[in-house]
């Protein structure tokens, strides 16, 4: 199983590279990697397991964070209505998005970043994501709220983009125009 020891930290070159498309149908190795990523995110949200293995509770993980430069992400997050979004996706891509933006009022962090970078991270408020699931099915997701933010954060990792790249350097908490605040 994956632990925090497998997660590379800020400064590691993998986090600044553009990850490669995964050849489909996925190889057994790529499937095993994506399954381990999804298992990490689930395990990390289980208090007993997280405590036992020192896992930082995560709601998403991208393959470059475990030093695998391939376009794979795992997300396990509930939206504000309590609906669960649990996906391992190969080659996820945003095929459309709202003009309106959104941001987490608490700001963002990252499993690969140990120090805080305070500030609002502007994201699209609504996105449509396409990708291929672990069982080889084409998946099309229409997302808003926290799930939309997580998918954008993870897809950024596939393009070597870190959340703090988006923060206003002059005024980290400057109001973002045409944006809705998303509370934790
Ligand atoms: C880095 C960490 C703080 C652990 C972050 N968790 C998180 O934001 N939890 C959370 C947020 C809420 F809004 C409501 C709630 F119930 C729990 C996280 O897992 N990630 C995943 C990551 O680093 N992926 O690469 C960072 C998040 C920042 C915005 C989306 C993902
Ligand atoms: Zn991250």
TrEMBL record:
Ranges annotated as spanning the membrane: none
Record's keyword annotation contains Thylakoid: no
Cofactor note: Binds 1 Fe(2+) ion.
Catalytic site: 154
Family: Belongs to the polypeptide deformylase family.
Keywords of the record: Hydrolase, Iron, Metal-binding, Protein biosynthesis
Known function: Removes the formyl group from the N-terminal Met of newly synthesized proteins. Requires at least a dipeptide for an efficient rate of reaction. N-terminal L-methionine is a prerequisite for activity but the enzyme has broad specificity at other positions.
Source species: Mesobacillus foraminis
Signal peptide: none
Name of the protein in its database record: Peptide deformylase
EC number from the UniProt entry: 3.5.1.88
SUPFAM superfamilies named among the record's database cross-references: Peptide deformylase
